[in-house]
Each structure stands twice: as C-alpha cells, then as structure tokens.
Specification:
18 helices; alpha/beta; 2 domains; 14% strand; binds uridine-5'-diphosphate-glucuronic acid; 45% helix; Rossmann fold
Length: 441
C-alpha cells in the first residue's frame, strides 16, 4: 500500500520505517528541508537502536523515501498519517496548532477527483481532536472530497521503538467509518498483532489513559519506596511480590528518580487538562505528578544529608538521557538533577553513552563537565549518582570506580547496581527504597 507519514520526529520516522520494513511503500514528509536532505543521505536525527540499518535497507529497496512535497504525497497515497508534535502549553493543555496547520494543508490539496483518502492521527492528542480534524477538512477542502479521519495511537517506547513497532501488544484503530477501518486493518495485517477496533473518541482516550496509567504505576511504586525506606523494607522485593500477581504485573514497577521524557509528563498534564475541561477531573493524576516531583526532592535531600553541604562537593552523575538506549534528554530527570546540584554549588561531572551532545545543549549555562569516559567522570568524586538506567552502569567495574573516587559513595537513583558488589568493592551504597549498605571497615 502507498502510505504517507507527515512529520519525521520520533514517531513518524520509526513508524514510517517499520511500515516500509513490512512491505508498504512509504513517503515520509517533513517541512524541514535540511532534515529531509540529511535523512536522504542516511544521517540520523536521533539515536534509536536498529533504526539506521532499517532505514538504509528500506531506502535501497525503494520502499522508503523522504520528501518535503506534501501535495505529491496526498495525491499518491490513499492513507495519510499525521505524526507532528503536540507540545504542552504552559497551562498543561495540548498545543494542537501543528495538527491544525497540517490538516488545513492536506484539506487544500484534496480534490474529489483524487478519490477516497483516510487521514490518520498518530500524534498523541486529547479526545475529540479527530472530530475537529474532520471539521477542518470539511471547511478548507473542495466540495465533494471523500475523506475519513482515523485515530491510530502509537505505543512505542524510545530505546526499543523498532521492536515495539514490529511486535506490538495491540494495534488500536479508532474510526466511525467501516470503510476506513477495513483499509487500516490491511495496513496492519503484516504485523500479525491483535487489533482493537473502536470509535474515534475511545482510541484517543486509550492513548492518554494508557500513558497516564503507566505514570501512575511508577509514582505508586515510588511512593511505596519512600515507605520502604522508613520501614527498613526492600522495594525491589515488594515490587517482585506484588508484580507476580498477573492483575498487577511487574512491568513499570521499577522505583527510581521518577519518570521523564517527552511523553509521560506531557500526557499526564494533557489528560488532567482535558478531563477538567470535560467536567470529569482526574485528581488522582495530580497526585501522580506530585509524587514524581517529590521523588527527586527526597533523593537530593538524602545526598545533601550525606555530604552535609553540596557547595564545592565533587559529584559525578552517570546518565543524562531520560532513559537508557536513547540520546533524548527532553524532561530528563537526570538533567533536572544535574541542574539542582549545580544550583546548590556542587562541582558536577556527567557521563552518558549517547546523550553527551544533547545533554550539553540542555545544560547550557550550567557549569557541568561532560566526560567522554564513565571512569574519568568519577575521578576525585565524593559521590557518584546513577541517574539513568543504562546497562553499562549496571555492569561497571566497581573496583575501578572506588580507586578513582575521593570518597567511595554511590547513590543509585535507578536501583541497577548490585549493592553487595559495591560493598565488596569497598563502596558505601545508597539506593531507592532499600537499606543503605556499608563496607566492613
Ligand atoms: C512511553 C510509553 O511507555 C510508550 O508506550 C508510549 O508510546 C510513549 O511514552 C509515547 O507516548 O510516545 P517512553 O517515554 O519512550 O514511552 O519511555 P518509557 O520506557 O515509558 O519510560 C518513561 C520514563 O519512565 C523514563 O524516565 C523511565 O526511566 C521511567 N520509568 C519507566 C520508571 O521510572 N520506572 C519504570 O518502571 C519504567
């Protein structure tokens, strides 16, 4: 099938590539000429495992192209996916101006002679957006165009986007038209995944409700971690014990510094906002946000208590990205942490396997030294903080770490280092929701 994807951000680029991978002809459209040109030359705008190889393969096979020509894409493709950003406004509501702008452009290109077209919303949007998209098309296109609007939210995680897209738990398709639904099912037939067929509004709600629920799970276990610290219990054991109940499941019960990224913070806010506007407030999500913020505060408080004052203390931070396997630092808790430490006058060094460049940009104006090597980063440090759950931090040579540090103290904000190993290496080990471990003197 001929598919157009508008927007080559995270969702657009990875979705378009995976559609090509399963055999569709895909054109990815972006209005940024420089980006389109560098994609044509095989240069990646983001780091995402396996994506580059897959793009190269599909471009050479002629199934994947990049272009700025929206009009040609609308003429050639029966299905047009919109995957443009939906950033938050200051009040938490969702900025839909990119969606509206692209919809108007599509509407102005459509003609009755082109035949049937399906406009699919892939971006995360508040409920009722699809209905508004349909209205805009009606308003700005020629009389007699034959169009349906579909909501098809995406559930990929950064860092494992390709695998998530190729092997999804489910595909959600929201449409009030059977014709559009049948066409969309053909798009997803090669994925061999369960398809949830729902109306437009329900599909839009599924996305906001899913992300908010996952954020709620994280805040729940983080709140439990605070109780564990007071009670001398172990949050990892509690998570295991409750997670073995299939109704709860162990996924997304990793206690840590809290959730970040371009999705959860924005989507929880967006859901709170739309629910309030609809007159059905989701107060529970305000508590989710509060716990998320308190988690970082509590952690910084513990580090401060350990060092007494942070001013002029050497603190090494492993991890700048908002999670492992990505260079994305948007709403990264690690970045927030580094800023807090700098504000309190600490001398901060930081290391991230992929997010050095994006991190440097996000930390502009803060006197943090970004290192090329994780062991150089801990040189003379009085505390090492693990802020992102990269595998290589879990596998670190802790003896080497101790030898390089001034005071051998680790604060593991992601509970990924084996505490006993740290203690054997002679390091004092603090983590989230577990007892502190001290080496034998
Ligand atoms: C999230 C959802 O997981 C995807 O299903 C969704 O498609 C995506 O948002 C989106 O809306 O586009 P993502 O933000 O890429 O994906 O990453 P996650 O793996 O969900 O992690 C989000 C944050 O939660 C990270 O900061 C991570 O460190 C944190 N987290 C995650 C925890 O603190 N504990 C956990 O148990 C899991």
């Amino acid at each position: 099938m001929n598919l157009a994807i508008i927007g080559t951000g995270y969702v657009g680029l990875t979705t378009g590539t995976c559609f090509a991978e399963v055999g569709h002809n895909v054109v990815c459209i972006d209005n940024n000429e420089v980006k389109v040109e560098s994609l044509r030359q095989g240069k990646m705008p983001i780091y995402e495992p396996d994506l580059e190889e897959m793009i190269v393969t599909n471009v050479s096979a002629g199934r994947l192209t990049f272009s700025t020509d929206l009009a040609a894409a609308v003429r050639d493709c029966e299905i047009i996916f919109i995957a443009v950003p939906t950033p938050p406004h200051d009040d938490g509501s969702v900025d839909l101006s990119y969606i509206e702008g692209v919809t108007r452009e599509i509407a102005s290109i459509l003609t009755p002679e082109m035949g049937y077209r399906v406009v699919v919303d892939k971006s995360t949007v508040p409920v009722s957006t699809g209905a508004k998209v349909y209205k805009v098309i009606e308003r700005y296109s020629h009389r007699g165009v034959d169009v349906d609007v579909v909501s098809n939210p995406e559930f990929l995680r950064e860092g494992s986007a390709v695998a998530d897209l190729l092997h999804p738990d489910r595909i959600v398709i929201g449409s009030d038209s059977q014709r559009a639904m049948d066409l969309m099912k053909r798009v997803y037939q090669p994925f061999n995944a369960p398809i949830v067929e729902v109306d437009l509004a329900s599909a839009e709600l599924i996305k906001h409700a899913a992300n908010s629920f996952l954020a709620l799970k994280i805040s729940y276990i983080n709140a439990v971690s605070a109780v564990c610290e007071k009670a001398g219990a172990d949050v990892e054991l509690v998570a295991m014990g409750i997670g073995m109940d299939k109704r709860i499941s162990r996924h997304f019960l990793n206690a840590g510094l809290g959730y970040g990224g371009s999705c959860f913070p924005k989507d929880v806010k967006g859901f709170i906002n739309v629910a309030e506007q609809l007159g059905a407030p989701m107060e529970i999500l305000k508590e989710v946000e509060r716990v998320n913020e308190a988690q970082l505060e509590r952690f910084v408080g513990r580090v401060r208590k350990k060092l007494w004052v942070l001013r002029n203390k050497r603190i090494a931070v492993w991890g700048i990205a908002f999670k492992q396997n990505t260079d994305d630092v948007r709403e990264s808790v690690a970045v927030k942490l580094i800023k807090r430490l700098c504000d309190e006058g600490a001398i901060v060094t930081a290391y991230d396997p992929k997010a050095a460049e994006t991190g440097a940009a996000a930390l502009q104006g803060y006197s943090v030294t970004i290192c090329d090597d994780m062991y150089d980063c801990v040189q003379d440090a009085e505390v090492l903080i693990v802020a992102t759950e990269w595998k290589q931090f879990a596998m670190a040579n802790l003896v080497k770490v101790r030898e390089r540090m001034r005071l051998p103290i680790i604060f593991d904000g992601r509970n990924i280092i084996h505490g006993e190993n740290a203690v054997h290496a002679g390091i004092e080990y603090h983590s989230i929701g577990r007892k502190n471990l001290y080496p034998n003197k």
